[in-house]
């Protein structure tokens, strides 16, 4: 009887062990199948996410203001097309084409941003605040400072030539520069001899000015005239509107004008042309003098269109980051140097409140 019971117990144990083995094997098979399904689903989800992350845009258009010769700007900024495509690709945007154009004047670029026909604009603060109903600032430029930063014109003349400094600054000044004409030299001599210029001096000179939205070429010089002589550019009887600072320097060299208004210090950018293209025998530093210096002007903007069909917050952020990245590369630095930009920092609309005050004052004076 004991043997029978022993046999039954052994048989029962064997049956239990076999059942456990089958159960574990089935569980392993089911787990393997489940893992395979999870991996497949994860791969599909990853592919879908990648497709969603990369967005395609046929064209991004960029407008530049003509503060330099338009052909020179187009040539210098050509590499920007590939640089921007590459940076935007790392940020999840595939750009088919980058279209670059130079406006006929400052207002033209502001108008195309407002209309939504240009996506991105390199525009000064003065132009931005005039068109901020249709444009939004995303970056402001930083530039190397200059060894001259005095508001006294004679200091600039005693410390020629103007040289760059290592300091990065977010503002610049506008200069009133007298040329080699008889009247230009007369005004320069008064400044360098410590004599006060008069309203009659201003009104008797021939001036070259830029568009009315140009900070250095119109707005701040107009404020300087108001503060010092109770005049504005609109009050000057002898003035000519020019399409670029290069054109103004050419006229200054020819003696067609006596005084031009420009950013500090544009003579550095026209030093070679003064003798090679404008056929002057002496250097630009020998033949020109500063007769007036404005207060600081907040730097240029990179702004985007509020009315572009493709513009949204994600794209704006990507464009913002792309240009900051580009400015950190050697090739990028070379491209943006056409505007004397050396880098970019994030900007907000309130940064240009002072510019709005300046614009409002000029408009009320005019």
UniProtKB/TrEMBL annotation:
Residues 24-38 have a biased composition (Acidic residues). Transmembrane segments: none annotated. Residues 24-56, 146-165, 346-366 are annotated as: Disordered. It comes from the Bacteria. Keywords: Signal. Residues 1-19 form the signal peptide. Pfam families: Phosphonate-bd. This is PhnD/SsuA/transferrin family substrate-binding protein. It comes from Gracilibacillus thailandensis.
